[in-house]
Amino acid sequence: EIYQCDWSSDVCSSDLKVGDTLGNTLPGDGFKYRGRGYVQLTGRRNYNRAGKAVGLDLVKEPDLALMPEASARILITGSMEGWFTGRKLADYVNHTGCDFKSCRKIINGLDKADQIAALATTFEKALQPVADPKPKPPLNIPLQIKAPKLPSLSLPKLSFWFKLRLAISLI
Question: What's this model's pTM, rounded to 2 decimal places?
Answer without folding.
Answer: 0.66
